[in-house]
């Protein structure tokens, strides 16, 4: 499947208008058309597709309805800057999904559908304004040597924690890849480890408190802070301690990316589903749930068509949108109140570039480094300032936290010879002082300022090296994909108030909704955003149990 064009990509922003004053217009409805399936799936992000892959394996007749011209949600590849380039729209790295039993145990075999993963070495590069840097390599010793340039003590601490955190991997797997409440909690499992009471306190502290206690050098602390923020959970918040150790998972497994682009995951899942009789339709935005005797029995689309479900409806739409698609009294007062309290994460500003050469980083020894990924964080305090800027509606151009990706360094198939793709992910408030619509006024100016800051670390990014640019503000990101509510690329904050049994709503974290017949998956359910496939597989575990079967039973019957 070739990447769609920039024109069609931008057109997708109009597929599901957002009620924000003059920003959208309601689509004209046509005469309804009846279609009946066992399960109707609303939304075609990777979690919906993962769930559908299991459901069609179980023999259920499924239809997946996607409101935009392209499936994949956050796992999309498109030609954004120049025709023919394969540019990741949002997600690039698929590290977490590697631990999903779907991959780990090959429950859903996607290799026949062309899915292949690559790992970059170095994994990440961290340049600093004083001309120094830390480079993270697949070899733990080589990474530790980078730390030793600043502190031998910190290098030894990194080696020690690398070994100590091996026990955390199985716990993350058990809690992430099971519905909340069906296993012991993360804290309970951590407490049972050797030195469990120490780990328990570490987990309940903030990531920053862990980092500043364990490491002494400011460069090392910045490295650890930037690594802890990859899932955009503010590191100064209580009970974020686990994110301080996330870097060791990447040190062990790297940061795998699909050859050909992030969209290859969605493409492979779609091929698997269609080969087993599933139907996937695009430009089919859902605007209403069909209710019969208090039960959800299907969906109504913006084009007037209807799709009826004999067994269940599975939604991966944002919980803020789903709740508007049925009468309030069906949800319950507390459920509605909790959805109203939903908080976004620091929103994203994305700048995509087509270049004649990749970014180059000058090292302190005079050599030049070219890498697929780099993170820029001037100091730990820069992340604290981000939280302040979000609260007051100001953009930090002086020392922003940025992620810089140039996947053509790792995967030359994404562009013709002599062309490279790159994008910056910068963080900025959705609600500017002048209101979110002001992003339309300052969009290009903001992109220029973010680029100029990056040039301080990679000076070869001069104007003559830039062939084209395509930018998205937090407002653009939400317009294009309603699941990226307020520009939140993980659909919402993943702090203690919105994770585990609290996601999306306390009392409703088991992927079931207050309306019988309606299940929920996607980034607003446990364990949240990022490319893990966990919400999709977990939702299926619950659905199959209700249907009188299970994933192991489905897989046994498939083998027979």
Describe it.
The chain has 560 residues and is an alpha+beta fold. The chain has a domain at 28-77 and 261-343 and 492-559: FAD/NAD(P)-binding domain (3-Layer(bba) Sandwich). Helix content is 33%, strand content 17%. It is built from 20 helices and 20 strands. The strands form six sheets. Strands 1, 2, 9, 10, 11, 12 and 20 form a seven-stranded mixed sheet that branches. A five-stranded antiparallel sheet has the order 16-17-18-13-19, with helices on both faces. Strand 6 and strand 7 form a beta hairpin. Helix 2 (46-57) packs parallel to helix 12 (263-275) and helix 4 runs antiparallel to helix 5 (152-164). The radius of gyration is 23 Å and the shape is globular. Residues 11-33 have low confidence and may be disordered.
Q: Could you report the average pLDDT, rounded to the nearest whole number?
A: 91
Q: What is the CATH H-level superfamily of one domain?
A: FAD/NAD(P)-binding domain
Structure annotation, total helices: 20
Known CATH architecture of one domain = 3-Layer(bba) Sandwich
Rg (C-alpha, Å): 23 Å
| Fraction of residues in H or I helices | 25-40%
| Number of DSSP strand runs | 20
Beta-strand content estimate: 15-25%
Characterize the overall form: globular
| Termini Cα gap | 32 Å
Instruction: Give the low-confidence spans.
Output: 11-33
CATH class of one domain, named Alpha Beta
Largest sheet: 7 strands, mixed
Question: Which topology of one domain does CATH recognise?
Answer: FAD/NAD(P)-binding domain
**In terms of structural class, how would the helical and strand content be classed?**
alpha+beta
